[in-house]
Amino acid sequence: MLDPIRSTRAVQPAPSLFATDGVRPVRRDVSPFRHEQQRRLAAVGLLLGGVLAASSAFAQTAPDPDWTTADMPSQAGRIFVVTGGTSGMGYEDARALAAAGAEVVIAARNPQRGDEAIGRIRAEVPDARVRFEAVDLADLSSVRAFGQRLGATLPRVDGLINNAAIMAPPERGTSVDGFELQFATNYAGHFVLTAELLPLLRRSEAPRVVTLSSVAIHRGGINFDDLQSTVSYQPMIAYAQSKTACLMFALELQRRSDANGWGIQSMAAHPGVAVTELVARGPGLESEQGRQWSAMREHLQTAAQGAVPTLYAATAPEARGGQYYGPTGPNEVSGPLGLATVPASASDPAAAARLWTLTEDLTGTRFR
Ligand SMILES: NC(=O)c1ccc[n+]([C@@H]2O[C@H](COP(=O)([O-])OP(=O)(O)OC[C@H]3O[C@@H](n4cnc5c(N)ncnc54)[C@H](OP(=O)(O)O)[C@@H]3O)[C@@H](O)[C@H]2O)c1
């Protein structure tokens, strides 16, 4: 059987500024165009994220920048739910967790993509304990039904990875429940899913919830006056808002877990900018954003590299709730693992509490 972690380590893509040593991001100055590449990478960061700034209220404990999935302790006996595990980072999360011995539930919309993902994982990890469950995060009745199915079939959940997302559809879409589609899929669906799984999480000895945010959050915050982007829909601004909401949710969940004794460690993570299906399925490869992304793709993170901050948050014994993990290169687009920058827009506990209460009311959901 292939060791999936080592087989990932063996990947050697074309020389680039952020060449890969397996899933460990390593900087190598290999090109005479290094400064031009740095300028372009910073431009990608600005395109997706904007200028980094601000602070975090939680005590900061930086991870080992050299941490790789090979450092992941055995996850045998632990049960994970990974939303969006059919492609991109979610697939890499599921693959690495299954390879480390975890039981993994991949949750996404399309059973055929689920079967394909499981087939690819089993090709590397024949004894992988992985299964697919259909859920549409943009339909809260689907999310609740999924939560109830898990409640009936699992003894507990040790790790929930709130990873699924869509990015910047050109036209404003709405969910089954009438929310703007990115707000619904990326944030509100995960808010309700986490509430649904709270009883299962509380049965774990050491439950963790990891919620995915993005460098895009540095482009904007929460517009409480137009939360559903009905007055003005700008695709990336709405994406940035949904991902800011995800980060605020992760930090607020930690505060509420501490206050209520739920015992959960809630972290946020982001991948930098990674080659996945997100752009193709969102703005499209023919869009201005798609063309810029395509021009840079060989210098971006692989999905396996992009998954490292999430996998660290989900499994490293030294990872801590209330932290935000990501790559630490220019504009946090790629580079070694570290603490990610929490923008001022996401670090105000009063705003996070306001958003939490608003979301409870909008979705008719309570954490109990
Ligand atoms: N790629 C990047 O550069 C980047 C940068 C910053 C942050 N991120 C974040 O990283 C995470 C993973 O994104 P990715 O780049 O790996 O994207 P991806 O390859 O497009 O994967 C997205 C996943 O989400 C699932 N999904 C989409 N809508 C869903 C819905 N309504 N219900 C359930 N599942 C749904 C998709 O599954 P099905 O279509 O099979 O349902 C797919 O598995 C996201 O949270 C994203 O915001 C990515």
Overall description:
There is one protein chain. The protein has helices at 4-9, 34-48, 88-99, 111-124, 140-153, 181-202, 235-260, 278-281, 288-296, 303-315, 349-363; strands spanning 20-21, 24-25, 79-83, 103-108, 129-134, 159-162, 208-212, 265-269, 324-327, 337-339. The protein is of the alpha/beta class and 368 residues long. The chain has a single domain (4-363), classed as 3-Layer(aba) Sandwich (Rossmann fold), CATH 3.40.50. Strands 5-4-3-6-7-8-9-10 form an 8-stranded mixed beta sheet, with helices on both faces. A two-stranded antiparallel sheet has the order 1-2. Strand 1 and strand 2 (24-25) form a beta hairpin. Helix 5 runs parallel beside helix 6 (181-202). The longest helix has 26 residues, at 235-260. The protein is globular, with a radius of gyration of 19 Å. Mean pLDDT is 88; it is low at 1-35. The protein binds NADP nicotinamide-adenine-dinucleotide phosphate (NAP). NADP nicotinamide-adenine-dinucleotide phosphate binds next to helix 3 and helix 8. NADP nicotinamide-adenine-dinucleotide phosphate is lined by residues 83-84, 86-90, 108-110, 113, 135-138, 163-166, 185, 212, 214-215, 243, 270-271, 273-274, 276-278, 281.
